[in-house]
């Protein structure tokens, strides 16, 4: 049998290949490749998709996070609280903007734990970055309340949570805070065919500022008001993303059905399955299990022709990049134990029942 890989981007393309090809040719023939009408219409459609008013496309997710931090006014010395189990790009968004990352612990759903978050607030705290890790929304009711109470800005890292919903009024992640930041890296739920990202907000000033910063700090050509960067969403990616966006609901439902299959069929006392918030909709960017013998489990699956990935093996506070912050092993025991135990099993657009059955059978046979 063919190896089961952690992702199959080819299947995501094949399913809608005619539409992608038409969109690509339309852009190639248009003679217009950067900051044109494809980007503008994608921005409109994506704002609507997230239930926000404004959107700025960016070159990637890291830049979306960095520019969002700059737009809400993060400056040198400002502390921004983020969960310790996130992908390091969340943290880099803060530090590249000049802020100081402060790590809080995650809750059992892998989102930032509101209790730990509140404990880490100091006089220097300016903002919170809530990461909807693996596709499950953070506890946004509590987080919004804490941010309001302490006068903090709230940035959401939605790189893994396109279309995920929280609360009774079914609000979409990215619309709770001051700015929602997205990555459209090819493997994300809504993926481009290259690098791409976006910021969404109900605050027009923030999005105007991000549009200026993404284009060398100029709103009017050659009038550079501040030192910006070059991080634009190109016409090709925007056109291809519009195709993905038009199928976002069916792709989300497919992942959710695949997750139900794993939930109902994985049965092994050594394996902890993901817990789901009652008041939220998980979009399963990853289906993440935990196991005390994680490395053995990963090797065992590999021998059975099943690839898995660890998201993430080294928590940012213990990485070389953030050694300067002075954290040591043991400072964030929950984040650290997740790093030792988590394992992401195959989950992607186009995953087959047979592939899932093979994965389940292998997992249930692990002793
Ligand atoms: C992918 C990802 C990013 C970074 O996005 P890029 O487009 O790769 O720069 C940031 N945060 C999280 C949680 C991610 O998964």
Question: Notable features of this structure?
Answer:
367 residues; alpha/beta; Aspartate Aminotransferase, domain 2; Aspartate Aminotransferase, domain 1; 2 domains; seven-stranded mixed β-sheet; three-stranded antiparallel β-sheet; globular; binds pyridoxal-5'-phosphate
Please render the helix and strand layout as text.
Elements: H1 9-15, H2 17-30, H3 37-50, E1 54-58, H4 61-71, E2 79-83, H5 88-96, E3 100-104, H6 114-119, E4 125-131, H7 140-150, E5 153-157, E6 165-166, E7 171-172, E8 179-183, E9 197-201, H8 204-213, E10 218-220, E11 223-224, H9 235-246, H10 248-265, E12 271-272, E13 280-281, E14 287-291, H11 294-303, H12 333-341, E15 342-345, H13 353-364
Parallel strand pairs: 2-3, 2-4, 4-5, 5-8
Antiparallel strand pairs: 1-9, 6-7, 6-13, 8-9, 10-11, 12-14, 14-15
Helix pairs in contact: 2-9, 3-9, 4-5, 4-8
Pyridoxal-5'-phosphate binds at residues 60-62, 86-87, 89-90, 131, 157, 159-160, 183, 185, 195, 197.
Brief synopsis:
The protein has 13 helices and 15 strands.
Protein described:
- With 367 residues, the chain is of the alpha/beta class.
- It has 2 domains: 9-246, Aspartate Aminotransferase, domain 2 (3-Layer(aba) Sandwich), CATH 3.40.640; 248-364, Alpha-Beta Complex (Aspartate Aminotransferase, domain 1), CATH 3.90.1150.
- The chain has 13 helices and 15 strands.
- It has helices at residues 9-15, 17-30, 37-50, 61-71, 88-96, 114-119, 140-150, 204-213, 235-246, 248-265, 294-303, 333-341, 353-364; strands at residues 54-58, 79-83, 100-104, 125-131, 153-157, 165-166, 171-172, 179-183, 197-201, 218-220, 223-224, 271-272, 280-281, 287-291, 342-345.
- The strands form 4 sheets. A 7-stranded mixed sheet has the order 1-9-8-5-4-2-3, with helices on both faces.
- Helix 7 (140-150) links the parallel strand 4 (125-131) and strand 5.
- Helix 2 (17-30) runs antiparallel to helix 9 and helix 3 (37-50) runs parallel beside helix 9.
- The structure holds pyridoxal-5'-phosphate.
- Pyridoxal-5'-phosphate is lined by residues 60-62, 86-87, 89-90, 131, 157, 159-160, 183, 185, 195, 197.
């Amino acid at each position: 049998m063919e190896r089961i890989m952690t992702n199959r981007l080819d299947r995501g393309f094949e399913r809608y290949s005619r539409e992608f090809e038409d969109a690509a040719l339309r852009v190639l023939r248009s003679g217009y490749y950067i900051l044109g009408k494809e980007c503008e219409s994608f921005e409109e459609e994506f704002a609507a998709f997230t239930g926000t008013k404004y959107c700025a496309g960016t070159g990637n997710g890291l830049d979306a996070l960095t520019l969002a931090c700059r737009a809400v006014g993060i400056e040198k010395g400002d502390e921004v609280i983020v969960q310790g189990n996130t992908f390091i790009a969340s943290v880099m968004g803060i530090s590249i903007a000049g802020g100081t990352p402060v790590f809080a612990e995650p809750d059992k759903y892998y989102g930032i734990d509101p209790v730990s978050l509140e404990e880490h607030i100091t006089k220097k705290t300016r903002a919170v970055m809530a990461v909807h890790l693996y596709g499950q929304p953070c506890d946004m009711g509590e987080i919004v309340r804490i941010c309001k109470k302490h006068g903090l800005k709230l940035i959401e890292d939605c790189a893994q949570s396109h279309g995920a919903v929280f609360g009774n009024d079914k609000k979409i992640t990215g619309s709770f805070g001051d700015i929602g930041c997205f990555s459209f890296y090819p493997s994300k739920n809504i993926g481009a065919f290259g690098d791409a990202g976006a910021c969404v907000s109900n605050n027009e000033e923030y999005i105007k500022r991000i549009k200026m910063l993404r284009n060398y700090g100029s709103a009017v050509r050659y009038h550079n008001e501040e030192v910006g960067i070059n991080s634009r969403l190109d016409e090709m990616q925007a056109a291809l993303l519009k195709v993905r966006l038009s199928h976002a609901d069916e792709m989300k439902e497919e992942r959710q059905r695949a997750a139900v299959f794993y939930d109902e069929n994985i049965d092994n006392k050594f394996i902890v399955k993901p817990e789901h918030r009652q008041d939220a909709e998980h979009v399963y960017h990853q289906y993440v299990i935990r196991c005390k013998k994680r490395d053995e489990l990963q090797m065992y699956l590999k021998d059975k022709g099943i690839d898995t990935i660890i998201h993430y093996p080294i928590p940012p506070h213990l990485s070389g990049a953030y050694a300067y912050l002075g954290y040591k092993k043991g400072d964030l025991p929950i984040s650290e134990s997740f790093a030792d135990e988590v394992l992401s099993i195959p989950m992607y657009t186009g995953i087959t029942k047979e592939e899932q059955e093979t994965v389940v059978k292998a997992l249930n046979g692990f002793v």
